[in-house]
Amino acid sequence: MDPTRVLIDQRLLEIGIGAYVTGALVMFAYFLLRTPVLRSIGMPLAILGCAAQFAELGTRWWMTGVWPLTNLYGSLSLFSAVAVAIFLVFAYRFDFALIGGPVLAVAAIAFGYATTWNEGYMPAVPALQSYWIKIHVPIVITAYASFMVAACVSLLYLFKDAAERRFAARGGSVRALAATPAGGTIDLSLRTASTAPPPDAHRSDTPAIAGAAAAGDATAIWLAGLPSLARLDVMQYRVIAVGLPLLSLGIITGAMWAKEAWGAYWQWDPKETAALASWIVYAMFMHLHTRPEWRGRTTAWISVVGFVSIVFCFLGVNIWISGLHSYKV
Amino acid sequence: MEARRGARLVVPAALAALRGAREVWAELVRTFANVAFGVSLLAVWAIFTLIGVVIEQGKDPSFYAGAYAPPIARLIARLDLANIYHSPAYIGVLGLILCSMAAATFTKVIPRRIPRLGPVKIDAIPLHARVVVDGDVETVRARLAAFFAARGWQVRKRAFGGDEWTFADKNNWARRGVLVAHVGFLIIAIGTTIYWAKGYSGQFAVLSGESATIPENGAKIALTRFAYRIDPVRTKAGIVYQPIDYVSNAKVTGRDGVTHDAVIRVNQPYDVDGTLVYQATYGFAIDFRVTKDGRPLAGAPDRPLKEGEGFPIAGTSRSIQYVRFVGTIDRATGAPAADPRPNDPGIVIQAFDGDNPIGSALVPLGQPVDLGAGFALTPARYVLYSGFQYRYDPGMIFVGIGAFVLLSGLCASMYFLPARLFAIVRPVAGGSEVGLAATTVKGYDVFEDRFREIVAELRRAEPPPRTDVAPTPTVGAV
Q1: Is the Cβ–Cβ distance between B386 and B226 less than 8 Å?
Q2: What is the residue extent of each domain of chain B?
Q3: Fewer CB within 10 A of the end CB, N or C, for chain B?
Q4: Looking at the structure, do residues A19 and A84 belong to the same domain, yes or no?
Q5: Are A100 and A214 part of one and the same domain?
Q6: B411: which chain A residues are within 8 Å (Cβ-Cβ)?
Q7: Range of the domain at A169
Q8: Considering only CA atoms, which of B384, B383, B386 is closest in space to residue B250?
Q9: A74 with A189, same domain?
Q10: Position A23 in a domain
C-alpha cells in the first residue's frame, strides 16, 4: 500500500472527526445563544467535515480499488457524511441550522465508532462483489441518515412541546412572571439575535410560552425564539419524506440483489426483517401525518421510535445477530 | 290465509335483517378504513416482525431451552414465536392490513382525492389573504388568471350564485400518488402469488466430476470443477483469511438436450430454461476407508460423505459422523489453525453408540484412527463439492413492476404537493379586492411559506394597491 495514500487517508479521517467535534460544540452554542457568528463558524466546519469524509472514502476506493462500503466502517462513515450533507441542504434551503449541534454530535459519534471497526484495507467477500453494492448500500445509508436528521428535528419538537406544556401547567404568563427570581435576571434574552422574531413569528402555536415571553420570562423568550411547532413538524415530515422513499427503494434494490445472489427476494433474514420493521414505523408516521389530530407530538414520537429501530437495524443486527448480512470473517 | 300472514311477517323481518347486516357491513368498512385502526395494525405488524428478528427463527425447541430462561423458552414454544413469519397470527395481521388498505382505498383514497370546484369562505381557511388592487373586476380576474398560469398553475373559472371564482391547481395528478402506491402493493402481491402457485425452488450439492438433475424441469448439471480463492489479509487485528471467489465450472443440459458450458459464481446465476441456478455453498466431501483387522469392511460408505453425514460400523451398535473439515492442523499444537485452506487438512469425527455420542476426534487426512475391537478408519482424501440453489419465479416481472409502481406512488405523494388556490375578485372603492385562500392535501403548515411568496409576488405583479384589508397571509388554528 502506498504510504502517501495511507497518510492522506489518515489525515482526512482526523480532519473529519476534528471538524465534527468542533462543529458540534459551536453549533450547540449557536443553539443556546443564537449568535449569527457561531453559525457562520459552525456551518463551514460541518462542510469541511463532510467534504473530508467523502474525500476519505474516495481515497480508500482510489487506494485499494475496492468499493469502500463493504464493511461497517465504510457504511458508518458514509452514514455520518450523508447525515451532515442532508443537514446542510436543509439548513441552507429552509434556514434551519438550529439542529446542527445534535446532527454533528451524532455524526462525530458515528464516525468515531466507525474507526473502531476500521480493520484496514480488505477485499470484498464474494457475496458483496456485485454492482448492486454501489446502488443498494448508498441508498439505504442515505435513508438511515435522513431518519437521523428527522429524529433530531423531532426531539427539538418534543422539547419545545414539553416546555409549552410545562408553561401551560404553570399557568402561563402570570405564573411565569412570578417564577422569575425577584431582583434577579436570567440573561438569555439580552442578545439581539435571540430576541429577533423568527420567520414565522406572526403566529404562535405555543401560547403559554408566548404569554410567558411577553411577561418577560427569560427561558420563555429563549424558547419562543425556536421555530414554531408547526414549522418543526413540517421539517420532520420533509426529512422523513426524503428517507422513506429511499428506504423503500433500498429494500427493493436489496430484494433484487438477494434474488441475484441467493435466489430469493426475501428470506426473512434479520437484516431484511429489521429494515421492514423500520419501514413499517415510518409508514405509520406517514399515515398518522395525514390526520391533523395526530400530526405533531404523536408523529414526533414515532419519528424518534423509528430512528431507534433504524439504529437496531443498522448496528444491532450487524453486530449482535448473525444472518445472511453477517459478512464478518 | 296462513301462508299470506306468514309472508307478511317474514318479509319485513328479512328486510330488517338485511338493513341490520348493511349497517354492520358499513360499520366494519368504516372501522377498517379508519387511519388509527390501520396504524394500529401496522404497529402490531412491526412488533411481530421485530420479535422474529430478536428470536432466532426455525430452530429446534432444545435450542430455545438452552438459549433462554425456561419461562421464555416455554413462551416461545407455546406462542409459536420460533416460526412467527409463517404463523397464523402474522399472516392474519397481513390479511387485516390488506383489508384495511382496500377499505381505505375505496372509501377514502379514490373518492376524495380530487375535490370538486366550489366556493369557500376565504377567511375560514387558515391560509388566506386579501389584496386590494387597481382595476375593475373583469380586468383583475383576467390578470389574476394570467398570473397563475404564468407560474404553472392550472386555472379554471366557475360561477356560483352570481360570483365568478378562479381556481388554480398545481400537481393535481399527484393526488393519485397514494392510490398508485397501494396499487403497487397489489401488483407485488399478485407477483408473489404467481410464484406460490406456479414457481418452485430447491437446492442440491454436486461432487466434482458428478452431476445432478433439477427434478422440476429435468435440467442436468454436471460439475466439472469447483474452485475457491481465500486470501490471507493483514489487518489491525492480525491475519484474516478473506474469501475472494467461489466458482463452479459446469456443463448444463437443458430441455433442448444441448449441453452448454456454464460458469456459476455468487451474484452470477445461470439461467437454464427460465430456472436460475445459484452458487450457494461449497464443502469438502471425504472418502472414508474402514477396515476390520486390516481388511476392508463390508458396508463402509461407497461414496464421499459431506459434512453432517455418517455411517454405521457393520456388526456393531456404533456409528461415525463426519462433523467438519479442518483446512490446516497446527503441527505444534495438533489443534485446528485459522487458515481454512487445505494445507495440512484433517476432519472432525464424532462416534455414537446408538444415539448417544461417545467421543470425537480430529483426524489428519490420510492417517488411520483406531476405533477399537480391530476396527480402523482412514479419511483417505477429500473431494470438493458445490452447493447450488435453483428457483423458477414466473411472478418476477409482476414484482418488478409492482415495486416500480409503489415507488412512483410514494415519490408522487411525498415530493409533489397538490395545492389549490381559491380566488374571488370583488369590487371595492378605488379598485378590486382579491380574496385568496389555499388548501393542500397535507394541511396548511407545509404550504405556508409558498403561500406567503405567492401573495408577495401578486402584490409585486399587480398595480400598487390603495389599501390592504389584511396585509399578510394568516394562519389560524388548524
Answers
A1: yes
A2: 34-112, 122-171+417-474, 284-379
A3: N
A4: yes
A5: no
A6: 245
A7: 161-224
A8: B386
A9: no
A10: yes
Nearest Cα residue to A256 out of B405, B195, B389, B399: B399
For chain A, the first-to-last Cα distance in angstroms comes to 22
Q: For residues A78 and A173, state if they share a domain.
A: no
- Residues on chain A touching B389 (C-beta within 8 angstroms): 262-263
Query: Would A238 be classed as within a structural domain?
Result: no
Residue holding cell 471467489? B245
Q: Is B410 on the interface with A (CB under 8 A)?
A: yes
Answer whether residue A328 is part of any domain.
no
Give residue A266's region: left, alpha or beta (phi > 0; psi -120 to 50).
beta
How far is A199 from chain B, CA to nearest CA, in Å?
A: 9
A10 and A115 part of one domain: yes
3-class state of residue B115 by DSSP: coil
> Is residue B443 within 8 angstroms of chain A, CB to CB?
yes
A303-329 burial string, b = 16+ CB within 10 Å, else e? bbbbbebbbbbbbbbbeebebebebeb
* Closest Cβ opposite residue B242 in set A123, A230, A255: A123
The Cα of B266 is separated from the nearest Cα of chain A by a number of Å equal to: 6
Residues of A in contact with B214 (CB under 8 A): none
Domain count, chain A: 2
CA distance B77 to B54: 15
ipTM of the complex: 0.78
What are the chain A neighbours of B54 within 8 Å (beta carbons)? 321
**Chain B residues 201-230 with a CB less than 8 Å from chain A:** 201
Q: Is A23 in the same domain as A112?
A: yes
- Using DSSP's 3-state secondary structure scheme, residue B393 falls into coil
pLDDT tens for each residue of A145-190? 999 999 999 999 999 999 999 999 887 444 434 333 433 333 333 3
CB B87 within 8 A of CB A268: no
Q: Which of A87, A120, A153 is the last residue of a domain?
A: A120
pLDDT by residue, tens only, chain A of 329 residues: 677 878 888 899 999 999 999 999 999 999 999 999 999 999 999 999 999 999 999 988 888 888 888 888 899 999 999 999 999 999 998 888 999 999 999 999 999 998 888 877 777 888 888 889 999 999 999 999 999 999 999 999 999 999 999 999 887 444 434 333 433 333 333 333 333 333 443 456 889 999 999 888 999 999 998 999 999 999 999 999 999 999 999 999 998 888 888 777 888 888 889 999 999 999 999 999 988 888 889 999 999 999 999 999 988 887 777 655 554 43
Query: CATH classification of B122-171+417-474 is 2.60.40.10, yes or no?
Result: no
Domain end marker among A186, A201, A224:
A224
Please, what sign has the CA dihedral across residues A211, A215, A219, A224?
positive
Q: What is the CATH number of the domain that holds A25?
A: 1.20.120
Strands B128-133 and B470-474: antiparallel
- Cβ B42–A234 below 8 Å, yes or no? no
The DSSP symbol for B347 reads E
pLDDT in tens, B198-219: 999 898 999 999 999 999 999 9
Examine residue A184 and state whether it is found in any structural domain, yes or no. yes
